[in-house]
Amino acid sequence: MICNLCPRRCNTDRSTPQGLKRSICHASDDVEVALVSLHTWEEPILEAKNGAGTIFFSHCNLRCCFCQNHEISTEGHGLKISTKRLADIFLEEAQRGACCIELVTPGHYTRQIREALLDAKGRGLKLPVVYNSNAYELPETLRMLSGLVDIFLPDLKYFDNRLGEKYSGVSKYFDYASEAIRTMFDMVGPCELDEAGLLRRGLIIRHLVLPWQWRDSCRCLDWIHETFDDQVYVSIMNQYMPLFKACRHPEINRPLTTLEYQKVVRHAREIGITKGFIQVGRTDSAKFIPHFNEEHVLAENT
């Protein structure tokens, strides 16, 4: 199938070896998943006692030099499954007690995910569906999931497009990401919590603060607040680690300092952001990175 799902618009046939070489994400038409888990390190309004039912998809359309999940995003570790098996996974996560179904880096499998969600919902899936994305998306692709996704969880990585080119290998990152995030908000509207305080519909925008880039972080927060006011949640993260190929850029080849992070948090408070989350203490630890051991990807009797 010819793929133009993301802003890269590779126009490549993902069913052929030649097509896979031409594309950036290197994803085929077969869904690949590296881990199915109950994840307990998400924002408090996304996880109950048992955690979020996360499905970590292999491959990615970005090439972030500091990616913590490079084992699956760039190296493509994972197992191929059918869309029928993906629907089964959604239902199995519900049976394990997940409070939501969280799709992690799902954009390149939008067509297959749509089919699997329709199947699972037809078989009784009631949990909210969370779309966890790098935000380098096209509005028309996101709208393919209209009525199927309840919560969007995008990153807003950079305000300055030059940083996207330098650290993630993409052009016009903010231009595309900002439009995608607006589309996400149009699809789900303002945040709605249930009686237990869990998010049942809405938008949480994540932002990872990078070394030396706290000013760009503040510009991201300015845009979020000016665009959405207090209708969305903002999650400001301090968990940056100089992993993967970060050593190629000396300015970010170090941990984030407490002072840099505090500057961004202080700015959020000064501009009036009230619906937000911050990370306390040191979260730049490998213990927060999932083990992509393919657990629960295949059916138990295989």
From TrEMBL:
Transmembrane segments: none annotated. Gene3D superfamilies: Aldolase class I (3.20.20.70). InterPro entries: Aldolase_TIM, MJ0674-like, Pyrv-formate_lyase-activ_prd, rSAM, rSAM_sf. CDD domains: Radical_SAM. Keywords: Iron, Iron-sulfur, Metal-binding, S-adenosyl-L-methionine. It comes from the Bacteria. Its cofactor is [4Fe-4S] cluster. This is Radical SAM protein.
